[in-house]
Amino acid sequence: MGLLPGSAPLSDREKGMSSEFIARAFDKSDHSSPARFIWSHIRRHPVVGLLMVFGAFSNAALASVVPYLIGQAFNVIIAGGGMKRVASLTLAIVGSQLGRGVLQFMRNFSSETFAQRIERDVRDELYASLLGKSMTFHDFQPVGEIMARVTNDVRELNLMMNPGLNLILGSGMFILLPLVVSPTIHPALILTPLLFLLAYVLIQYHYVSSLHRVAQEVRASFGRMNARLAETLDGIEVVKGTAQEKEEIRYFGGLVDRVRDRIVEQGDIEARYFAILLLGLATVGGFLHALILYRAGAINTGDIVAFMGQISLFGFPVFTSIFAFSRMASGYASAERILNIITARTDLDQNEGGYQAPMRGAVTFERVDFGYLDERQILHDVSFNIRPGQTIAVVGQTGSGKSTLAKLINRTYDVDAGRVLIDGVDVRDWNLAALRSQISIIEQEIFLFSRSIADNIRFGKPDATQEEIEEAARKAQAHEFIMSLPQGYETVIGQRGVTLSGGQRQRLAIARAFLTDPRILILDDSTSAIDSATEDRIQKAIWAAARGRTTILITHRLSQIRWADHIIVLRKGRVVAQGTHEELLNTSEAYRRIFARYEGPVTRPDAAQGERSPAQGLD
Ligand code: ATP
Ligand code: MG
Asked: In this predicted structure, what is the pLDDT of residue 612?
């Protein structure tokens, strides 16, 4: 459970945001539009940002000094002036370029720092925002698509700043300087730079707007490709087990082709970039204009050289802007995608000001309705009451809503109607962290991180000592097998726990629950994957775990059902019977049928292999 460090009061904006978890460090980022979002991140680094702008400007200024000084030197030579004057002009050129080198270094350094910081900030913000989203949000987001946004789209923002913005600022100065310097040679010479500037702005506007659409498509197709990749790797066992490799390769190939096509389309737009033609026109037009002025006696040869030098400065922005503006378009498209996630509404909120207290463990469902999707209701009018310390069993056929019911208790999802109360307080009024840290769910499918066994056990209690971890593992009957692993507790579990059997995974999860010592423990089918030899020991572990706390067992095992204080029988999302084992045997025909079937003579040869599910009797 992600608890925030520190407990400063929430800002008004945070209160307005609905999230399970809010990262305070990003108070200042503005989510109202991609441009504002980018700007709010830029603003957080004023020093390196200004150094970058200053470096870009001074670089351009010192670059334009060169043609100006060369023009002067020409005039001195043509006028038959002394070599001393030429030498001092040469020294001025050398000096200015040395200064330019130093400034250039500063610019590169600050622009790199600036871009990397923005990448880091945005990635941190996006990650924090992802962890704050409700399960409903995550249920509908392909993991690969989100990964593409956190890795590649955020990276695009870095490239948007450097080289993108850096080059645009730097080269922008190369456009403005001729506008300032040329009129000092002769006022009429402002004509060419001015026309160039107007045409350049129009061309860039058109260029960026056509790039923006295709950049969005590039990013989206990349996301789709990534989503498929992640899903196939996640389900690699199924792909191999059903011999679908060829089909998957073909399908993936199609997605890769689409990414390529979109990028080629982007290249196509870049290739049609006609600012290069504009450069040619400016050179020819500027030269003609200068010649006319020369023949009229308004300027001299050196002036022509100096002026043409100014015009040649346009070359830099023209060539770099192909690349720089396409980085801007990609970055903008990425910012839109990132913002789409950050601003996605999520239904749960952290409720930091909510009720906090040590739990006693009373759980009440009051006429609860719930559906994952609006159009399909899963739980109907579910009501029951569990007293602190009781052990209850939830039984029912597959798909009847047992796991769903468990997820409403710790607010993995929120009810649509009715209430879930813990110690008489609606779970929605509890502080979410206080609520979840006192409830432990051992899921039906146990997820382990690719970290050491010890780290996995201490996941809910990061400061647990080695002794505590081993103690928990012993109680969960896991110590023995852990010690038989090559590095004992330090053995790193492979991807998705594949190096452990189902039973071993379950015992680790039970150890994890022992360590967090929850007031309410929910075991979802937790012994189904354990062989009968281990079962006895696991049973003991569960009894030990259940002692002194409210325990909800979602199970098909009759030994556990019999032992429960209270049994809830679910059928198609409705409670069809509840009570103790004896009560149910007396009052519920359905329940009696289950037991009759289970305890009756074994008629099928395979039925002797293990326990039959009592739920089957409910059909
Ligand atoms: P089992 O014994 O097989 O574990 P269960 O009783 O635990 O079954 P649930 O997992 O609660 O059943 O599922 C109840 C219904 O809710 C099913 O019809 C299932 O399709 C649906 N369902 C479960 N999880 C989701 C989800 N994340 N999004 C949408 N529907 C879901
Ligand atoms: Mg289930």
From this structure: 41
